[in-house]
Amino acid sequence: MSDHPGLAADDLRRLLAANGVDVVGDLHIDLISGGRSNLTFTVHDDRRRWVARRPPLAGLTPSAHDMEREWAVTSALVDTAVPVARPVAVDRSGEFVGAPCTVVDFVEGRVVRAAADMADWSDDDVTANFEALIRTLADLHAVDYEAVGLADFGRPEGFAARQVKLWTRQWGHVKTRELPDVERLAERLAERVPAQARSAIVHGDYRVDNTIVDADDPGRIAAVVDWELSALGDPLADAALMCVYRQPVLSTVLGFDAAWTSDRYPSAETMAQRYAEVAGVDLGDWGFYLGLANLKLGVISEGITHRALQGGSSGAAGAERAAEATAVFIADGLAALNG
After folding, report:
1. How far apart are CA 205 and CA 241, in angstroms?
2. From CA 284, how far away is CA 138, in angstroms rounded?
3. 9-105 and 115-337, same CATH topology
4. Dihedral pair phi/psi, residue 219, rounded to 5°
5. The whole model's pTM is what?
6. Were 222 and a residue from 13, 40, 164, 212 both cysteine, which residue would form a disulfide, CB within 3.0 to 4.6 Å?
7. Tell me, which fold does domain 115-337 have in CATH?
8. Which tens digits make up the pLDDT trace of 73-87?
9. Helices (H), 177-318
10. How far apart (Å, rounded) are the C-alpha atoms in residues 141 and 81?
11. CA nearest 121: which of 112, 132, 109?
12. Dihedral of CA 210/216/219/223: which sign?
């Protein structure tokens, strides 16, 4: 048996048994490095492999590490065009492992986090991967959420206005200093919320390293992962976040040279236009959506440092520096609103 401070093998065995899973031999648990949010582990016995996820050990903010949300949305998407890892077990209350936890089947493939992870890709491979990512996001936004049982997953109407309020409130939980521009951006966004043209399942954190890519085919996404920020809402908010993640300062937040900031991928502007073409939509008030995405990422960056200062970084490199990106995101958000 092997344990981690966030996940004990005996506890996980009881959780699996309660969900009808027979464990063969000892359970072995390894923490996957690179995460800035929920703790993610690979788990295996003598026969099968799984992935388990639970919230951080310290510095939690309300709703930011919602395991029930992950479980509900991935369970609903299993038989759709959106590739997800098949759900195996859930501990909604922390009864078994001491915190909410989900377990899903292990998906074989490649996780592309750092720019070095795509060094062996040709330019055609990068293009194929980009197209697959755009197509997968469009497929997600095309899912009939009522038909897959997610009608009660949330209130899609008024999503953007609630997001402005949510991330403004989250700033109050995680700020490590005063930054008046955060409130300024939030106020301007609140004044400019556009009418919502569509409602869809939104991932809330979409970029290449939150997917598993087929090991032999960069043009096939084997699974979309990390669903804790998913919701029913405005799909343009999802698309804008994907584009804002392209900013070089993301590498500061993650603590390494991020693949998604590589100049081998198309520009954020090209990504936005390609999404609009594939999804068959108009980008609407794109400046607002870029501003909202920058507010969200600025607060998330601050939150990473907030958790690190409370001892909840799980050893992630550079977590104390993530807040250096906050002011950059906020300034870019204000610039986007100015057109």
Report:
1. 7
2. 16
3. no
4. -85, 10
5. 0.90
6. 212
7. Aminoglycoside 3'-phosphotransferase; Chain: A, domain 2 (3.90.1200)
8. 999 999 999 999 999
9. 180-191, 235-244, 250-254, 268-279, 286-309
10. 11
11. 112
12. negative
CATH 3.50.50.60 given to domain 9-105: no
pLDDT tens digits, 271-306 = 999 999 999 999 999 999 999 999 999 999 999 898
Predicted local confidence at residue 315, as pLDDT: 53
Which tokens belong to 252? 């500061």
User: Could you identify the residue written with the tokens 């900031």?
Assistant: 261
The Cα–Cα gap between 60 and 174 comes to: 9
Nearest to 251 by CA among 317, 299, 204, 191: 317
d(C-alpha 308, C-alpha 118), whole Å: 29
Sketch the domain layout of the chain as residue ranges: 9-105, 115-337
Please give the Cα distance from 195 to 162 (Å, whole number).
13
Structure tokens at 59: 């510095």
Helices (H), the chain: 9-18, 67-77, 123-142, 159-174, 180-191, 235-244, 250-254, 268-279, 286-309, 326-337
**DSSP H or E run through 212:** strand 211-213
Q: What are phi and psi of 58, to 5 degrees?
A: -155, 165
Amino acid in position 55: P
Which structure tokens are listed for 133?
A: 């990512």
CA distance 270 to 71: 33
